[in-house]
Amino acid sequence: MDLFPDEFKNPVTEKSGTSEVKTEGGSANSGAPLAARMRPRTLDEFRGQEHLLGAGKTIQAMLQEGKVASMIFWGPPGSGKTTLARLIAESSTSMFVPFSAVTEGVARVREIIAEAGNRLKATGRHTILFCDEIHRFNKAQQDAFLPHVEAGTVVLIGATTENPSFEVVRPLLSRAPVYVLKPLSAKEVQLILEQAIKDERGLQNLALTVDDEALTFIAGAADGDARRALGVLQASANLAGYGGAISIDLAREAVQHRFASYDKAGDEHFDLISALHKSVRGSDPDAALYWLARMLDGGENALYIARRLTRMATEDVGLADPAAVGHVIAARDSYQFLGSPEGELALAQAVIYLATAPKSNRAYRAWATVSARAQETSGAKVPLHIRNAPTSLMKELGYGKGYRYDPEEENGVSDQTYLPEQVEGECFYEPSAFGFEKTIADRLRWWAERRKKG
User: Fold this and answer.
1) How far is CA 433 from the centre of its chain?
2) Whole-prediction pTM
3) Distance between CA atoms of residues 171 and 241, nearest Å
4) Topology of 6-180 in CATH?
5) How far apart are CA 99 and CA 105, in angstroms?
6) Which of 43, 53, 264, 373 gets the highest tally of CB atoms within 10 A of its CB?
7) Max Cα-Cα span within the chain
8) CA distance linking residue 354 with residue 284, whole number of Å
9) What is the pLDDT averaged over residues 98-121?
């Protein structure tokens, strides 16, 4: 059943925040990036995601029924999230309103929703609100969508490169199923490149000669990102000039120019987080702040950084300063509450705190050791005296017999043991002499002396 009357069959795209209106098919503006010019105009032109768009698959079936529901697209850059959302809107004749969680805020959301409500009442036409990078919205901002999604005022399509389980609030996930978009295969990317070379919207008028080897190289270097591949092809065309040839050597040169910036999925991503982690571990706040700034300036997800800082707090600071974890969690919450750029200062403070805190990996080492030992002795029985004895039968069997309640013992400690026989007497945690662990070490010595006295 078609949800929309015939008079609304001409799809129109409303550009968020401007008065620009684009009719179906778009513009072949030669000044636009090649990726924008070659954006698929129909689902037939769309490459990849056969698991969603193939015959009888979820989204294809949804479109055939004329029903579009709210959903979340989760996939890597260049996998087609924005384009697919736009094509879904055009296939359903809904108004498509793009919105960026990076550059716009809740005020714009309210404006879009008010317009959508008026449009629905006046014409019966639905609105698809496409929220790009929805993970950049904090919990309160994401919650603002809920009543309007439930009321049907808008159909929300969110797009994210981050795991929605961590980045999207649960109430929204319960109303908007997650569809995973996979990276394009090298073959799919190469088909897109070949189309761009011969299409009048693309590079047809440049009369280029392109080696198949060069196209194969570009498709492989793009790592499933169609937008990146088209960017490299455009850079190659600029280097070749009108009537020129794109060889594999020229394509390699274009790749070097094109990929010079920070890549969240590439080597620099891992190099920078490694540099940040090791600077914190090495108690160098200046270096740690520098690498934090490099990552944030490069567009790294702040919540990814917060998760790594939590690891540093537990693995490298540990019980030398037990408050470190709390500081990082507070910084994460502050960032989610404030957003960027104000929230970045909270992360900077957490980095300084961790870098200047006393360090100890003793808890980390203890956990690794005891985890392995627990697996080796998984059949070891709980000593009878510390077993639970909720019934008279269990008490008759000796459960809980001889247990001593330490708080009522002299000095608050008894000489009873708690480990099973197989590991009795083994020591897993040995505190360091730094920070709060000095206090822990003193306590353990004090208790050990009194246990010996019985």
Assistant:
1) 38
2) 0.52
3) 53
4) Rossmann fold (3.40.50)
5) 9
6) 53
7) 95
8) 10
9) 89
